[in-house]
Amino acid sequence: MHPLLLAALALALCCAVFAAFFRVARRLDNYGVVDIVWSYAFGLVALLYAALAAGWAPRRALVATLVTIWSARLGTYLYRRVMSHHPEEDGRYKEMRTRWAKNFAAEMLKFYQFQAVSVVILATPFLLALGRAEPRFTVVDWLALALFVVAQTGEALADAQLAAFKKSPANQGKVCDVGLWSVSRHPNYFFVSLTWLSFALFALPAAWGWLGLVAPASILYLLLFVTGIPMTEQQAVRTKGDAYRDYQRRVSAFVPWFPKA
Fold this sequence. Notes:
The protein is mainly α and about 260 residues long. The protein folds into 2 domains: about 140 residues, no CATH class; about 120 residues, no CATH class. It has 11 helices and no strands. The radius of gyration is 19 Å and the shape is globular.
């Protein structure tokens, strides 16, 4: 199937899925559900592309498997986080309720559909990689695979260290400054960016493969300047005050590095 037709099919599928879960979110009265759906949707799109793209079958299987593993892990992690606080809603969606109070349902439906569009745009590396025809794994493929393994290992370790820190009653209200969190204030975000870079590497040898770089560049921009670090740190300063300000002074914001004395 032509790549543009595949992308259009993926967009129609995502729009339908997000519309259905908008109804679920309304029933639950918790619009944080969209984060879960967004995460799982990448696996769904990758499997669609793997089934219908014209690329070399072993590479299609490998890339689709990696994306599905990542998507399932992230979606399950967010499901547990969102549902553990339900019916309490994430602060971002509380703020949206206030901002869109006059026409909230319609605005939130548009927001859900925008998330559907973002999935298809960010999934461009999958479409390009799964359409590659060369009948062998290249050096770039092996580099991409190695980067993916490093990124997933690092992200899982960062999440586990943070969860273990929060679980201890002695750490209540304290700043997590252990393991990877002692060398980066946001190691999870750093490894997320590496995961997206690995997907772009798989796509790079394809015709127009450079377009795949739009996805990691967009994710990096969001993490550094929009919904990632800025919002997380504003909340941390509000809740932890000077302890977090000291943490900001000592520890690298993003790339793991030696802390300041």
